[in-house]
Amino acid sequence: MYFSYDDDYYMQKAIDLAKKGMGYTMANPLVGCVIVKDDKIIGEGYHEKFGKSHAEVNAINDAKSRGEDLEGATLYVNLEPCSHYGKTPPCANRIVEEKIKRVVIGTEDPFEKVAGRGVKILRDAGIEVEEYVMEDECLNLNERFFAYIENKRPFVVLKSAMSLDGKIATKTGESKWITSEMSRNLSHELRGKLDAIMVGINTVIADDPSLNVRHGNFRHDPIRVVVDSKLRIPLDRKILSEELPSFTIIATTKNYDEEKFETLSSKENVKIIVAEEKDGQVDLKDLLEKLMEFNISSILLEGGGILNASMLKENLVDKFYLFLAPKIIGSDGRSAIASMDIKSLKDAVEIEITKVEKLSGDILITGRI
């Protein structure tokens, strides 16, 4: 199918608008919308926050606030307009009401309550609909949303900063700083783009991290998730501070310390998930399912070697950001991935490398399972 230069141009505008919602849309997709009439943009909008108005409605309201007439206009949106009542009314019906003539869509919405129904509403109303404009770019934009819908669990991104020989710390635990300042800033930007950040209890005990966002263009602070099977977390850890934005989820099992449980439960900024148990530890698949109850659709995994290995063994990692510093630490350093008990190469985890970049001396490898 042929699409005009103008269609690509305005769809790119919609994609750029959608990116402004990164970190704030939670279980909802990133969506941007541009309305064009007589070769002029008359309205723009994006989905700004979970539970708030969708991109199409914001763009329509923007056009009306400018005093523009929407009848006969073309609307560009990177994802199929919704067709159901959720936290907001259906966008497809609103588009019909405004007598918009043409709608250009990047990708179909995989959510079962939409999935083609939005397009049908538009076409049944006599609106001209063009689909799959800049489809690859629109799919990449919402990769976490599509995976969330398909896998019925949050999209998990494993991020690790390591030496060339795969070590995240020396044998004494020293890890600051293996990678460059540029790499660290980009790591914080990744935090700001995703809904939650997950670590294991050993990381909390050893490093006492804040797990907030202090650098980068995306300053949204994610929900903090700590995997702590027996509630070993010391009460003086930074992530329990009420001064931090957002809140902390502690995932434990029925074998938790009861006194610690009562103390933590009394904190306003702490939520506790009692997950199923597997081999004496938190069942990670059950945990990810339970995290969906908090509308968490994406997680940045910043675990130590044990948690990283456990997530990989359970096939719960979707994407990788591996920051490699030009350093060699040696076999007695702490590994980014602990033992996975792989005896044959055919059982090794295979990664499709999608991008390799140089960052101030470091190398950033982006990949997918």
Can you characterise this structure?
The chain has 369 residues and is α/β, with parallel strands linked by helices. Helices cover 27% and strands 25% of the residues. The protein has helices at residues 5-18, 55-65, 91-97, 117-124, 135-141, 143-151, 181-193, 201-207, 258-265, 284-291, 305-313, and strands at residues 32-37, 40-46, 74-79, 102-107, 128-130, 155-163, 167-169, 196-200, 223-227, 248-252, 270-274, 277-278, 281-282, 298-301, 319-325, 334-335, 352-359, 362-368. A hairpin with a 2-residue loop joins strand 12 and strand 13. The two termini are 31 Å apart.
Number of strands: 18
Continuous helix count: 11
pLDDT averaged residue by residue: 92
Quaternary organisation of the protein chains: single chain
Biggest sheet character: 9 strands, mixed
Spatial ordering of strands, largest sheet: 11-10-9-8-14-6-15-18-17
Blueprint of the fold:
Blueprint: H1 5-18, E1 32-37, E2 40-46, H2 55-65, E3 74-79, H3 91-97, E4 102-107, H4 117-124, E5 128-130, H5 135-141, H6 143-151, E6 155-163, E7 167-169, H7 181-193, E8 196-200, H8 201-207, E9 223-227, E10 248-252, H9 258-265, E11 270-274, E12 277-278, E13 281-282, H10 284-291, E14 298-301, H11 305-313, E15 319-325, E16 334-335, E17 352-359, E18 362-368
Parallel strand pairs: 3-4, 4-5, 6-14, 6-15, 8-9, 8-14, 9-10, 10-11
Antiparallel strand pairs: 1-2, 1-3, 7-16, 12-13, 15-18, 17-18
